[in-house]
Amino acid sequence: MKKEELPNQVSVFPLSNFIIFPKTTVPLNIFEPRYIDMINDSMKLNKLIGMIQPKTSYKNQIVPELHDVGCMGKITSFRETDDGRFLIELKGLIRFKKVDEIVTDKKYRVLKVNFENFYEDLVNKKEELNFSDLKFIFKDLKSLFEKRGFIINWKALEKQSLDETINALAMASPFSLEEKQILLEAKNLDIRKDKISQILSTYTFDDFDNTTIQ
């Protein structure tokens, strides 16, 4: 997608503790009526929807407040099940900044958005990082994932490109909503790698090396 093809508004799916990055693909199981409507409308229009996290305080709100940054994706696969659900695959294209919420007669939410801080997401460029740089991250991530009951095919991950690997681990990680938002907003892959390392350092201390006497 080119800069001039980007929309100035996007329908959004607010999903807590879930992020999608540019150049990654995720499966989604759509069953709520309002989001069934959203996918139907998107398929007729441009196949684009935005993924954005609600803030932590949303539990007390009928309409949850949203974070400022999300990621727009394109529906690349669509299937309707016998019981009326939609099974889709969404490929991340570019992150966006929320400008305002648009009042519509739709059951789902629509945002006015700005992409100017994230045009680099549209560029396919080689990041200057090596897997050797990530050994310490993989080691700590592996421990954290296993402790939390997550199973990751690490050998398969190493066959992917580096940005796909880091982004896939960030999306699948058992990090908090706020921690995932920090990773989503990281300007580039190098910064995201460092942020993962920083977050992991707090987990590894709490979960594995805490020798404080209670």
Brief write-up:
With 214 residues, the chain is of the alpha+beta class. The chain is built from six helices and six strands.
Written account of the structure:
The chain has helices spanning 33-45, 135-147, 154-157, 162-172, 177-185, 189-207, and strands at 9-14, 25-30, 48-52, 69-80, 86-102, 109-114. The chain has 214 residues and is of the alpha+beta class. It folds into 2 domains: 3-122, Archaeosine Trna-guanine Transglycosylase, Chain: A, domain 4; 131-207, no CATH class. The protein has a 5-stranded mixed barrel with strand order 1-3-4-5-6. It is globular and about 50 Å long. It starts with 8 loop residues before the first strand and ends in a 7-residue tail after the last helix.
Query: How many distinct domains?
Result: 2
Q: How far from one another are the termini?
A: 55 Å
Average pLDDT, all residues: 83
CATH topology of the largest domain: Archaeosine Trna-guanine Transglycosylase, Chain: A, domain 4
Structural class determined from secondary elements: alpha+beta
Principal-axes shape call: globular
E-strand count = 6
Q: Note the total helix count.
A: 6
Spell out the blueprint of helices and strands.
Blueprint: E1 9-14, E2 25-30, H1 33-45, E3 48-52, E4 69-80, E5 86-102, E6 109-114, H2 135-147, H3 154-157, H4 162-172, H5 177-185, H6 189-207
Parallel strand pairs: 1-3
Antiparallel strand pairs: 1-6, 2-5, 3-4, 4-5, 5-6
Helix pairs in contact: 2-6, 4-6, 5-6
